[in-house]
Amino acid sequence: MADQRTVAIASTEPREITARRAVRAACFGFFVDMFDVYLPIAALAPAIVYFVPPGLSPEVESTIFFLIFAVTLIGRPVGAIIFGHFGDTIGRRRTTLISVAGFTIITLLIALLPGYATWGMGAVALLILLRFLDGLCIGGEYTAANPLAMEYSPKERRGLYGSLIHVGYPAALLAISALTALLTSIMPSGSPSSAYSVWGWRIPFFIGVILSAALFVYYLRKVPESDLWQSAPKTGAPLKELLKGSNLRRMAQLFVVMSGAWLTLNATVGALPGVGNVLEANSGAVNTGTLIAAAIAVFLYPMLGLLSQRWGRRPTITLIGVLNAFPAAILYIMLVSFGTLSNTIFVVLVAAVSLLGLLIWAVHTPYLVESFKTSVRSAGYGIAYSLATIIPGFYSFYLLGLSKLMPYAYTPIVLLVLGGLFLSVGALLGPETKDVEFSPIEGDETRSQT
């Protein structure tokens, strides 16, 4: 019944209204995704003692905490592969609904978990398993929802709409950080029996459940299936199609670009907390600088989306790569060398470096979606976006290796420069995509090959 109702909506309302519904849903969906991704980093970190045996060394506790976060990142490319197949075979909307229902239920189960005192090591083992499954479903949501939104978007607005979707990332980072700061300020934490450790951490997870359920209902009632996908020829094996010919060459080129995107993000937002600890900076300075960068990014992303629509995806991504390889690297050196002389200077430099590391995420969704034909677009987008997370995801080990050659605080600069070069070179190796005309007929999608 719901499918029939949304089909009727799509057939009777202006396409621009349908596009706005799909973009609004994708934007909210990405906010929910990122809120869920950062739950263990922000909300669970102060309560990790609730899940682990007492008396563990800080190093072992940190390793367990890193594993809880890492399995989510590993689950995302797995989810992109699985749900990408279904996004191209059973539909973008249906796949989105399945994945959203999945991480709604999983987040609820996590919120209800007992701790070590009740289940022993089984509690943390189940937490790790659930976070992996959660990452798998998160990878499915954007793999289906973002191509659905872009397929309804007018060509001349794909840059803007794609950037609006990813405003959800800095907005979610702001929301979860602010919520956790509020909760830890009004209830004690730090011991397995403290109020925050026993039940306070559950509040952000329950909020995540409510947000996910609302997203599910919105897609069910308001967002129709992509008419472009419905009218396009279907392939029974989209993953197989991606591994041959021009699709495989495109995947390889996008792997370079997205590896650069993840390297620059990990070298900035990911590595800066550790750099702050090494430099013995004020404990809240890195968090403050990151939040300032996220707040600026909320307003800057739409401008970058418009720039990429006017100027082109290829030169915009190339410029972002240059900004990370040179100005951001210089600012990073200044941060490490002189930042601790003043807390204000340190915060400003953290904000500047973090902001430059966030820029690529305003542009990548239309660029990736425009790179694939309709029959493999969901799988192509999801895999190109997520598979590149794996190698950069082990950045902490690369930093340890580089620390044998230079002071640890300077090691992220190497990854930042490398990521910037990957962005620029990868973009130059590929075509311009902003003028691609989406078509349901295979081979009819036209591209500018500048």
3D architecture notes:
The chain has 2 domains: 231 residues, MFS general substrate transporter like domains (Growth Hormone, Chain: A); 214 residues, Up-down Bundle (Growth Hormone, Chain: A), CATH 1.20.1250. The protein is mostly helical and 450 residues long. The protein is built from 23 helices and no strands. It is globular.
Brief account:
With 450 residues, this protein is mostly helical. The protein has helices spanning 2-12, 15-37, 39-44, 58-89, 92-111, 116-119, 121-152, 158-165, 168-186, 195-200, 202-222, 227-231, 238-242, 245-270, 272-278, 285-311, 313-325, 327-338, 343-358, 364-369, 377-386, 395-402, 411-429.
CATH-derived architecture of the largest domain: Up-down Bundle
Strand fraction: under 5%
Distance between the termini: 46 Å
By secondary-structure content and strand pairing, the structural class works out as mainly alpha
- The first-level CATH class of the largest domain is given as Mainly Alpha
Task: From the 3D structure, determine the CATH topology of the largest domain.
Answer: Growth Hormone, Chain: A
The CATH homologous superfamily of the largest domain is named MFS general substrate transporter like domains
Helix content: over 70%
Nearest-angstrom radius of gyration?
Answer: 22 Å
Structural shape: globular
Main β-sheet description:
none
Q: Number of helical segments?
A: 23
Number of E strands: 0
Mean pLDDT: 87
Counted up, domains total: 2
String of helices and strands = HHHHHHHHHHHHHHHHHHHHHHH
Instruction: Give the low-pLDDT segments.
Output: 7-11
